[in-house]
# Entry
Amino acid sequence: MGADVLLLERTNRPGNKLLLAGNRRCNLTNAKDLEDFVAMYGPNGRFLFSAFGSFFRDDLLAFLERYGVETKTEPDGRVFPASNRAEDVVNALQRYLEDGGVRLRTGARVTSIQIAKGCVAGVEIDKEVVPATAVILATGGASYPETGSSGDGYRLAAELGHSIVKLRPALVP
# Structure
């Protein structure tokens, strides 16, 4: 949208978790209506209404179609790429980044987020500091370090003063 964006990816390739999703087929969404979809997340799922009011299943599928990913809905309502290839979704997302002028830096493990005068000033990668005026921390959980989900995000958020709820293993919808 015109911002100067640098996407830092810890692993050597973006989209590693997506490549594993849905048995490497990338289960994208499901065919349920919004009410039923949110209900799958239990009582705390209400927080999804706001986000899904702006961008829900049809928006996602239209986005993917714009980037060449046809989809199919299986009899149980799960939606996958028609090719059954998670890699097609990752490639579409990479084309979207390229179209938006987003710079991608792989193999970049963030060690800290720098703060000066109460504002973000940069992101430290090993010993290098990359200047930044804003950061979106999207690191995944702590479930699969090989995909980049090593738990670093919790540490980084805690260092910035966020409260972290004790982690518990779970299966999620």
In short: The beta strands are 6-8, 29-30, 71-73, 78-81, 103-105, 110-116, 119-125, 128-131. Helices lie at 16-24, 34-39, 48-54, 57-66, 86-99, 152-159. The two ends are 31 Å apart (CA to CA). The CA atoms of residues 73 and 79 lie 4 Å apart.
